[in-house]
Design a protein that fits this description.
The structure holds 2 protein chains of 2 kinds.
Chain A lengths: L10 E5 L5 E5 H4 L3 H8 L7 E2 L5 H13 L17 H8 L3 H14 L2 H15 L4 H7 L5 H37 L2 H21 L1
Parallel strand pairs in A: 1-3
Antiparallel strand pairs in A: 1-2
Chain B lengths: L10 H10 L2 H8 L3 H10 L7 E5 L7 E4 L5 E8 L6 E5 L2 E7 L5 E6 L2 H15 L6 E5 L6 H10 L4 E4 L5 H10 L4 E4 L18 E4 L7 H5 L5 E9 L1 H12 L8 E6 L4 H6 L17
Parallel strand pairs in B: 1-7, 3-6, 7-8, 8-9, 9-10, 10-11, 11-12
Antiparallel strand pairs in B: 1-2, 2-3, 4-5, 5-6
Classes of the chains: A mainly alpha, B alpha/beta.
Amino acid sequence: MTSPASSSEVKYLIESSEGNTFDVSGAALRQSNTFNAMFLNIGADGPIPFTDYNEATLKKVFEYCEHSVNEENYSGPKHQDDLSKWDLNFFNEMDQKMFIDVINASNFLDIERLTSYCCERIARMLRGKNTQEMIKVITLPTAEELEAKQKVEEKKAAAAKKVAEKAAETAEKTETLEELPVQQLVQTTRNKLTRKYLSFSNE
Amino acid sequence: MPALPILKLPIIVLMKILKTIDIEDVIPISLCSRKMYHLVKNFRDKSIPLKLRLDGGNPNVPVQVLRPDGFGLQVEVVEGTSGNLEQVNVNGHLVPIYRAGEELDWKTYWDDKEEGIHSVVEYLSDLFGVKKTIKVTLNHYSEVWLLSYIEKRQGNDYELELQPDLSEEDCHFILQNYHPKIVWILWLNPGNFPISQYLESVEFLYSVWKLSITLDDVLNTNCVELVLQHNEFTESEIKRILQHWTIGAFKRLKFLSLYVKDLNLEHVLGDLDGLTLTRMTGKREYK
C-alpha cells in the first residue's frame, strides 16, 4: 500500500485470483462496504486479497468505482433511461459472462450503486417478454427436462431404497446373532460348520 | 437472446432483481416455474398497494390488477380454444396464453369461463398478495353470478360498481340479494334510484348520478363515507346535517360530500357552537 500526503490519493493494492496485483484509489475502494468494514479503520499491510475474482472482473468493477467517485451520493436505483452515455458504454461493452462476474464481485464487495444498476439492467432485459422467452433468458429447465430429471431422481431413490432394505436385512441378521445366548451361539455355529462339512463330504 | 441464469446469482442479488421488475413482468415471470412463482411473489416490490377488479362490463371479464393511480394490467378469461399459443400453468390448469408485445393485457383460453375466472382470481390474488381488496364491476345482469362467487369467497367485504347498462330492476335485484360494503354508482337510468332502503349494510357509497335520497335518509345513514355528487341539498338542510353531526348523532360517518347550491358557508357554520373547523388540504380522489 502506498500512502501519499492526501488521503484521497491513497492507493491500495488489490490481489486477484491469478495472484496479480494492481492499484485502486482509496476513494474508489471506499464505495465498497465490504472494504469499509474490513480494512478502512485497520488498514492493510499488503495487497488486499479479493482472490475469488479474476483480474479482469475486479478491474472492471473498480473502473466503475473510479468513474463514480465524484458523483453525488447514491440515492436508490436510477432508471436505465437516465443512465449516462459512459454508464451505458460500460455495460454494453461487457459480454454476458463478464456481466455475471461483475454482478457477483459487486455483490461481494457490496457496491450498492453498481449492484443496483446491474439488477435494473437484468430487469430491463426481461421486460415485455412472454413466459417462454423468460424461461430461455433465465435458463430454467423446460417441462421435458424437469420430467427427465424427475425420472432420474426416482431411479436414484429406488436404488437407494434397495440398498437401504438390504442393509436393514443384514443388520437384522447380525442383531439376531448378537441376541442369542453364548451357548446357543456356539451350537448354532457348530451346526453351521457341520452342515458345511456334511455338505462338503456329500460332494 | 443472451442467457442470464439469475437463479445462480447470490440470493441478495436475485431479491434485488425481482424487486426491480416492473409490475407487468411479474405475471410472465411467475408462470416460468413454481420456484419462480414463489420467489417473485415474496421479493417483488410491495411498496404500492394493489387492488383486484373483476370487470363484468367486458364479455371476457378481465381480472385487473390496479395501482392507486389507476395504472394496471389485466388477464382476460376467454371461453374457447386457441391455436398454437404457449401454454402456462394457472392454478393447476394448463391453459393457452397470449400477450401482444409489451401490452398490459393477457388473454387466457378456458373450456369453462367460470372455472377460468376462479383460477385467475385466486392466482393473481395470491401472487400480488391482494386477499380481499376486490372491486366487481357490473354492466350486465348476466354477470351477477360474479357476486355470488365473491360473497362465497369473502363475504360482503368487497366493492361493487354499478354501470350504465343495468336497468333499475336489475339494480333492485342485485342490492336485495347481495350486500357489498362499498357501492359505486357510476350511472343509473332513469336516475332517482331509491337507494336508501339498501344503505343499512353499506359502509361507503359514491354516486355520480342523482339518487332518491331524503334528508332523513342522510340523517339516519349508517355509512362511514357518503359521496353524493348530484343530490342537491338546501342551506337549511346542510345546517341540519351538520348540527346532527356536531351532537354525535351519526353512528359511523367520517366523510360526507354533497352537492349544494347558493350556500353561504358563514351562515351555516356561524350557528354551530363548539365546533373547530379546519379546511381540508388534501384532495380526495376516487378511482
